[in-house]
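@channel anyone free to eyeball this complex?
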Amino acid sequence: MAIAVVILLLVIATLIFHFVSPLYGWWFTDIASNWDMIDTTVDITFAVTGVVFVAVNLFLVYCIVNFRHRKGLKAEYDPENKKLETWLTVITSIGVAAMLAPGLVVWGQFVTVPEDAADVEAIGQQWNWSFRFPGEDGELGNVDVRHTSVDNPMGMDPEDPAGRDDVLIFDQTVHLPVDQPTRMLLRSMDVLHDFAVPQFRVKMDLVPGMVTYQWFTPTVPGEYEILCEELCGIGHFAMRGLVVVDERPDFEAWLDSQPTWGDLMARGEPNLAAGQAGYAICAACHGPQGQGQPVLNAPKLTGLGAWYIEQQLAYFKDGARGTAEGDTFGATMAPLMATVPDRNAMRNIAAYIETFEDQPVETTVTGDVARGERLYTTCAACHGADGEGIWTTRAPRLAGASDWYLVTQLQNFKSRVRGAHENDIYGSQMGLLADMLPDDQAINDVVAYINTL
Amino acid sequence: MNVTLLFTALVGAILVLLLLVRQLRTKSWLEKGIITEDSFSTLAPKRVGLFVFLGVVTSLFLLFMIIYNERAEFPDWRPIADSRLLWFNTALLVIGSAALQLARNAAGHGRLSGIRINLTAAGVFTIAFLVGQIYAWNQLTAAGHFMATNPADAFFYLLTGLHGVHLLGGLFVWAKATTNAWQKPDPEDVSQAAGLHLSVQLCSVYWHYLLLLWLVLFYMFTST
Amino acid sequence: MAYVALADRDHEQHLHHPQSWITRWVFCQDHKVIAIQYSITAIAVGVVAMLLSSMFRMQLGFPDSFDLVTPDKYYQYVTMHGMIMVIYLLTALFLGGFGNYLIPLQLGARDMVFPFLNMLSYWVYLVSVLILMASFFIPGGPTGAGWTLYPPQAISAGTPGVNGGILLMLLSLAVFIVAFTMGGLNYVTTVLQARCRGMTFMRMPLSVWGIFVATVLGLLAFPALLVAAIMMLLDNLIGTSFFMPEMLTMGGQGEHNGGSPVLFQHLFWFFGHPEVYIVALPAFGMVSDVLSTHARKNIFGYRMMVWAIVAIGGLSFVVWAHHMYVSGMNPYFGFFFATTTLIIAVPTALKVYNWVLTLWRGDIQLTVPMLFAIGFIFTFTHGGLTGLFLGNVTVDLPLSDTYFVIGHFHMVMGVSPVLVLFAAIYHWYPKITGRMFSDTLGKWHFWCTLLGTYTVYLPMHYLGILGVPRRYWSYGSDFIPDSAQSLNSAITVAAIFVAASQLFFFINMIWSLRNGEKSGPNPWNATTLEWQTPNTPAVHGNWGDKLPEVHRWAYDYSVPGEARDFVPQTEPPHEGVVSGRDHGVEH
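replying in thread with the prediction:
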């Protein structure tokens, strides 16, 4: 008997949970694309399955209550009832068809991209996003993984003229114009990924070796998180990007400020002499050979990849780093950036720093190296097993770095002093990973291990 | 895709057949008393087991063939070169299979000498086939086609290897049957003769199957 | 021994009676001992998988509070949890355990037709389990590729266990498939060939039907996994490019060229979807027998139940790509697979109706097995209905790869089959051990399990609707409200509660082994053959001197005009009843 009551209560509880959950936010996010048809198919499915769920279980409750064993009760001998079974088959088939038909209609729309859709390419790699717009000719240039290098991270074909005007977004944030049907072409540089924006409702995997697509029309300006939803390794959960849906003029202004592949190719080699001149002011704190000065809280720069230094300089310059409350040492960088006029100057300085010879620095941090080694397994996925840094994962070199600096930065990442700025998405990824270090002891342990690398 | 459909159709057909079987429509609650209806129970368990096993092997190789055909459509596919040796090997296996058929016929007529000679010949030719296959591998590696050179090569090594493993398994049973056949028969023991008869029969079924499988694989290798 | 007439079947099998302790309990060819060996091993690895889930649930429910489950460990635990539960627990326990125990007993056979092969099957299974467990102890640990093992990620840098874990996993799967094939050949051949006199196909209990069709599915589907595993091993070890494309790896060029990862997914799910039914069909069958026995009523619509099992088995081969709607395969496949998937809902729904209709006008005994069976109807209805969301291609778009999927498949393939397993273990425990279990402990176990698991999985669906992705070590995301994290904490508490409450089960099983009341041969007054054995527990050879003969179908409960409310299958018809098939056949 108790089982009948409990099943009845479970049905009621399920219904209550269902209707209450939107109040707590356990429901679809507000839709921001044209795909409200998808929400409709979900609603239809909820209606049909909800009725069946309640009906079957209430009948089950009824049976248990009425036909539970009592003295003198005898079961009926009832091998089959063709008529009843036929009816049930027919009704079930109708219910199934009622869900399937609208689903197929909407799927038909999903697979048919509208003629006026604009192409954008999203490129996934472990564990970050970048983007490409076709430029004025409306055509994306050829790409191949084999062309990929630190100067050509997207693998653009240098020979293909169609690629010259492609606008390359080396950032995890992409802007899209509102009310513009968009075909998102999806390309992976390494493993499977998935481009999903919950507010847009649609998603599709990125498969290395082929280009997949999805289409949608953003309808509400705002910022929406891009989630990778196909397991792609240790950093999967941190592989986030951002779609900013803009009014068209804002979008166009943003797009115009981004470099084309032609611009990048025209830059030529970095100018080391200019870099040396630009570095003069850095040398005051970081030392003439970039060896760092702990007393001035200036970390060692030597050994870091030029791509990383350039990126951090850019962050300092536009306030993505060093502006958060609590980042006192980072804050000293911001005024100094006034002496570095543009991205090209940053590139020159970074290239100059790369020419320094690496010298070991004194270690100051001690901790449980064995535990640090265990924890470092996760770090190794991006920073390399020897802490050598890997440019494709945007992870700088750790081996040989100033250890006191690593400790401060890990603390900053964990407390979101660093990486919280919306333009520092690589930093925000690091924040998510720094969460695995529960306390300062763990931070010291892992840095102590890095000291041994 | 065609092969995929073929496989689906095959599975579908088996199940539709099952559904159409009259037995499945009986209202068994109305039947009382002992009913003997089916043909399976009269077969030897080993025979039923062999056919079920061949079903599994078919599934395994069909799936490989599906993947082979799908993979062959990618642009990096370089088909393997024609090999006269493979034709020669095929002939060896045909002879092996035919010899087993003769052994089976001999068993049907109770001619022990016929069983002995043909059974032995079948094994010898099959071993020759396997040696020939290994020789074909050597030819291929000598020509610079290693397993990782191209997917076509990889499939060739893999599928011929798997086919060979299945033949080796068959040879194990064959070895037992042949030893039996050459032992002095005990006229008192009826089950000994029946057992030999069954082994020869089942071996011949298995050999014919593996010959057919090889022909399909061979066709596939040469036609893509 | 070629052609043996039915009547002589008794003399056909020369049973190797055990001589010593070793041959009796270790290297034993008796199907009942092998069944127990299979079951204990499967349950033991299942406990490992359950503990793993408790550990990663701690991370999900209470992030930042400890560092036991770092991201790499998290992915390893999730992967091992999934693979162990699906393959090494559920498949092995349903088919290796119950398949082995029930088939010969319910069909009136002395043993499986190939007892030696059967024994070998268990030992090979044990080897596969040991290989899998070994991966916990090698440098780098087990693979963290997710239980789907998708390449390229499964065998490229950035995935935990890429050095040795994945190799051991693939090897273990290959060995498992060999073990399964040996067992499966036995089950199918035994069902086809070794039924006792009078046991026609349509007189077989639904347990046997479910196990039989599931085994056929397994024999046809596991080769797909074998093919995938072999080819991935070669890609990994030799550098072939079956599945591996050109790609970057850790900042450099990979060595592969031109392979197709989607091809692997097709193979995997060609196995993976039937695998769902390899687990579900035996559960369907066994729960039917439990319901019928404890409701003292024949199973409603027996023919429909058999047809549904066969139809579901067949259809399960043409729905696999519904796992791949957003995989990048040709999107037009979506139309076909959504249609086939929703069609499969019809026979499945009919089964649910028939279970409830079996209770209707029954005489329901609310025993422990019956409670579990009723719990199954509830959770399976829930899990089956949420399947309609994911099977329908458009509805799947927002829900795919979210917690909705986790909630769905745990409800339909985790909770429901496990409830049946418990129902079955309690139901057949008296036959297996000769003793009754403790009713009180059994009821505690039931309530904790049902309520606990529902509390775990119901909220997950709503997290999924919100868009929370699966396989995330932590969230820290803009659109996930704090209330979602509180829900996650609640789920963790419930999950650990469920895990802990399984102690009721283990205590009950072990305690009752010695202290349970003697059950007698047929404590539930059931009709099927296994309850009619001359000894309880049944001894080697099952039937003493003479094999049973079957005179009626398996569900003669509460037959009008009979003195007792059940008539065993072995009972001959009353005098004057015309025996034979003719009035059974539809004209």
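from a first look: Chain A touches chain B at residues 79-80 (CB under 8 Å).
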